[in-house]
Amino acid sequence: xxxxxxxxxxxxxxxxxxxxxxxxxxxxxxxxxxxxxxxxxxxxxxxxxxxxxxxxxxxxxxxxxxxxxxxxxxxxxxxxxxxxxxxxxxxxxxxxxxxxxxxxxxxxxxxxxxxxxxxxxxxxxxxxxxxxxxxxxxxxxxxxxxxxxxxxxxxxxxxxxxxxxxxxxxxxxxxxxxxxxxxxxxxxxxxxxxxxxxxxxxxxxxxxxxxxxxxxxxxxxxxxxxxxxxxxxxxxxxxxxxxxxxxxxxxxxxxxxxxxxxxxxxxxxxxxxxxxxxxxxxxxxxxxxxxxxxxxxxxxxxxxxxxxxxxxxxxxxxxxxxxxxxxxxxxx
Length: 332
Fold this sequence. Notes:
alpha/beta
């Protein structure tokens, strides 16, 4: 359901609602006019700085560049997450909210691979991300995950992924309550994060925090905390499990695939201090090497997981860097 690329002001909720009415009446019907007005002042969150443009001290420009140049780098994890919505989104008018949607990556991957038929509304608290999403054909609305501008019982799925730890710990339970509020009966909430002490937690602490301009000191969730939030929100049926959510880059040679992974990581996390120290190519090689050292673990089934190369069906080399992630799935 690829939409036309548009220039829409990421700070202007009225402009976003108007554009949404034009490109997708289905998504526009999900918006709550009262909340659009009363929640506008609370729409911005702390990720405004992290995911703003570099001119304001953020890493938003590099983040968007990473997703644009390597659109499929996180496709395996996105495929697994969207698959968890199951029958809830298998009807002609299904809608999924992507609460931390950034520049619309989940929708764009879904459009590319045809993973689910539901229409995805990208949501984010950073105006720069909302503008970027519209510019790349992903309809988007500026809103905090804990203060949605969406009607009660109006959507079939809610995804909270790839940034859950950015939400202040005291407000995370409120996100689960908001997700349940906007879901129809039988709708599904999928909550994803990287466990405390996981390789991703180590990556943020040892690489992103010291080598990015924004730092990265956000407490991650645990299996128990995810379950507690889902139960407290009133979900009667839920489960928490682990998936492998890899980075994957492809190229004609093994070394090029590896360096593309390093470039992707350098852009994705805004590792500007590594670039200043080592230069762009040196920073890419360094980031790939650190990923090889950090992303080594044993899955919940007891299987060792390590970075590896694979041949693709068209003769390219794929470089896979596995990441364990926790996922809570709850049905209203």
